[in-house]
Amino acid sequence: MAKAAIMGFGTVGGGVYDIIDASREKVSLNAGEPIDVKYILDIRDFPNHPRKELFTKDFSDILNDPEVTVVAEVMGGLHPAYEFTKSLLENGKSVVTSNKELVATYGTELLAIAREKNVNYFFEASVGGGIPVIRPIHQCLTANNILKIAGILNGTTNYILNEMITKGKAFADALADAQKLGYAERNPAADIEGHDACRKIAILASLASRNFVDYNDIPTEGITEITLDDVNCAAKLGAVIKLIGYARFLEDGKVFSIVAPMLIDKSDPLSGVDGVMNAVMITGDSVGDVMFYGAGAGKLPTASAVVADMIDAVKHCERSKKIFWEKPEKNITASGDDVKFSYFIRTGDSADNIKAAFEDCRFTESAVTGESAFITEPLTAAEIEDRLEKLSSVISKIRVFN
Ligand code: HSE
What we know:
Radius of gyration: 23 Å
Largest sheet: 9 strands, mixed
Number of helices: 14
CATH topology of the largest domain: Dihydrodipicolinate Reductase, domain 2
Helix content: 25-40%
Oligomer: single chain
CATH architecture of the largest domain: 2-Layer Sandwich
Bound molecules: L-homoserine
Number of strands: 15
Strand order of the largest sheet: 11-10-7-8-9-15-12-14-13
Structural class: alpha/beta
Number of domains: 3
CATH class of the largest domain: Alpha Beta
Strand content: 15-25%
Order of helices and strands: EHHEEHEHEHEHEHHHHHEEEEHEHEEHE
């Protein structure tokens, strides 16, 4: 029987306990032995929990118990999650996590310690909630050179945008609903300003390139500037607006990444990813496009990925699966200066002004009277800024997904 601990008894931690408890036989069958939760670490009291004897506030109970071989870190945040995880790995215990902030920040070091100690640090739940995407990149797609990863990586923003699109809800109301449903981060700014998606694309880009991609280097725009008028204009075009995490792996070994709201044509499979669902499209040089779709947030979907990691850790006890990336000598983040996107522009300028600034643009019907809307040819960031300076008013500027 493998002994486990859960650190953090919030939404995901509760889900981890519930799945292990409810699926005891299934977990045992898949792990090769039963998994028994011996400790739950949380600073709060849970006097009404049926197994209240499992709760501890003292991390050293877990660290110093030689019986505990696998720990689920689902407490979130950087500290003390980092210190706890490091000590556990150094003590020869495998750790699994849903903590994208920790993986994106300290993953290089923690993965190296796991390798050195012949244990595992798994993080399937850190990206895409319940969607398997870490293992596919690490295992199933390893015969490919990954060319591009693009995904809807944040359930909260996708839920908000979807509520705006389908129900005409105002941004603030949709956000309040996402919080009630338990999708949003403790500080929802991490969702709506794109930082959560940024950490997730940094993890995927690091894993695919085997080189650390620092999320601090990824230009990140959230959805706070997206209005109902933008959404309605996009609909007139047969498109939707989604927050996209995007990474392109260039021939020189560099990686161009960005997080931004993008206009997606309804013919693109990512356009149909609604509500809290996430999807990740990965393009490999041999396999072409593969897409992973599922619940990107929420108690049981995320916990299902955490428990699957715990099962894998028990199965691979004392055998490191060597998931890792390294810190390259030179920063591999591409500046993106020469990366081109088409842009969707809304402006109060006349068609003549627009044509003078943009020779090769496609006018579309705007949903707002007195405005013009158009899509530009593919342009670099410098080129679009240069052209927009020639207009007197720019209401919206949104990249077109490609
Ligand atoms: N706040 C995150 C989201 C939770 O909305 O996707 C899952 O990482």
